[in-house]
Write the structure tokens for this entry.
Amino acid sequence: DAAGDLVLVHTEVPPALRGRGLADRLAAAALDYARAHHLAIVPVCPFVKKYLTRHPGDQSLVRGERPTTPS
């Protein structure tokens, strides 16, 4: 049941704005929103999945399988 879940499908930054950390800020804002509204997240977006491996403290928001931490 996905009721109460925030599904993060796609993160995109226009080419002219890439390399400025905006995608990280978008992911962080989505996770902050989920946390503030007591929502679990479903990370479908590959960028968000990678973000979660770099921010293991946010993995507690993930519904279902957790991303693995890189070795």
Q: What stands out?
A: The CA atoms of residues 4 and 39 lie 5 Å apart. The two ends are 32 Å apart (CA to CA). The longest strand covers residues 5-8.
